[in-house]
From TrEMBL:
Descriptive protein name: Peroxisomal biogenesis factor 11 gamma
Compartments reported by the entry: Peroxisome membrane
Any one Gene Ontology cellular component term annotated for this protein: peroxisomal membrane
Species in which this protein is naturally found: Chelydra serpentina (Snapping turtle)
Gene name for this UniProt entry: PEX11G
Subcellular location, principal: membrane
GO biological process, one term: peroxisome fission
């Protein structure tokens, strides 16, 4: 789906070939690890949204809802297992970014560095929690799940603040543009503003779920029904699919 959308934007025989053989395009997406993860994530939250809605209705629909929720749980577990191999990719990305010497703004740079650090710490905590649930090691998995969720939530907060800072900078740059440079900068900045706004919306949707999965008593932790968790995750996933289709995805995870 992602590759098909990308190819359709290209002129000539490539777009025609993609339109003629959408199955090959879908297969190409699924053969990519990141593409497959996007698809699984979208299906996971979509099943949770549909299952949560159906579970509130008649007994027959409730049974179908239960089955969809079971599928969602299995897809979520699948993504957890696949993330066992994401540490090196995240480490490579963090090393490549380093201390963000290419960033013009110091605040954006350090927000990105801290976000990368939170992402890096998230993975081993989740791995320990998974291993504990699988009886590979003997420890309390609950505290490790909480810690991994906290790192994920911290990363999302830092990403939101970073995007807001970038939007503030873009607005300031736009005010300083005049004449012909204004028209050219306007187009470039509009595209970047759209990307950052979508990133904020995606991160806020994920953050709402991250808080929900924290221990009860913290903000709205534990208060979301399954359909609302599915809705927030579906919104975030669809934004991610769109950003990938237009080449706006960022980061390795």
């Amino acid at each position: 789906v992602i590759t098909l959308l990308t190819y359709c934007k290209q002129p000539g025989s490539v777009a025609m070939a993609a339109a003629a053989d959408p199955l090959s395009s879908l297969v190409s997406v699924l053969e990519s690890y990141r593409g497959r993860d996007r698809v699984i994530r979208t299906l996971c939250y979509g099943c949770q949204l549909a299952g949560g809605v159906l579970a509130r209705k008649s007994p027959a629909e409730s049974e179908m809802g239960r089955r969809l929720l079971a599928v969602s749980a299995q897809l979520s577990h699948c993504r957890t297992v696949l993330r066992l191999f994401d540490d090196l990719a995240m480490l490579a990305y963090s090393r490549q970014y380093g201390l963000g010497a290419k960033e013009e703004d110091a605040i954006v740079r350090w927000l990105s560095v801290l976000s990368n650090l939170a992402d890096q710490l998230y993975y081993p905590c989740e791995h320990v929690a998974w291993a504990a649930d699988a009886d590979v090691i003997h420890t309390n998995s609950h505290k490790w799940w909480t810690l991994s969720t906290a790192f994920w939530g911290l990363s999302l907060v830092l990403s939101i603040v970073r995007s807001l800072r970038i939007l503030f900078q873009l607005r300031r740059k736009l005010r300083n543009c005049t004449g012909q440079s204004l028209e050219q900068s306007q187009k470039e900045m509009d595209a970047q503003v759209k990307s950052e706004v979508l990133s904020i919306l995606s991160s806020m949707a994920d953050l709402s779920n991250a808080v929900h999965w924290l221990p009860p008593g913290f903000l709205w932790a534990g208060q979301f029904p399954p359909w609302l968790v599915g809705l927030m995750g579906t919104i975030s996933s669809l934004i991610g699919v769109y950003q990938t289709s237009v080449g706006a995805g960022s980061g390795p995870v």
